[in-house]
Amino acid sequence: MKQLIKKIVPRPVLQTAIDIRDRRRLRIVPEQGFDSSHLKRANDIDLSTIFSDKEIEKTWNSDHENITSILGEDYIFDGINSGDRRALYCLITALKPEKVLEVGTHIGASTLYISRALKNISSDSIVTTVDILDVNAEHAPWKKLGLEMPPREFAKKLGSLDYIDFQASPALDFMRDTDKKFDFIFLDGDHSSQAVYKEVSIALTLLNPNGVILLHDYYPEAKQLFSNGHIIAGPFRALDRVKKEGNDIYVKPLGNLPWPTKLESNATSLAVVTRA
Question: Could you count the other beta carbons within 10 Å of the beta carbon of residue 54?
Answer without folding.
Answer: 6
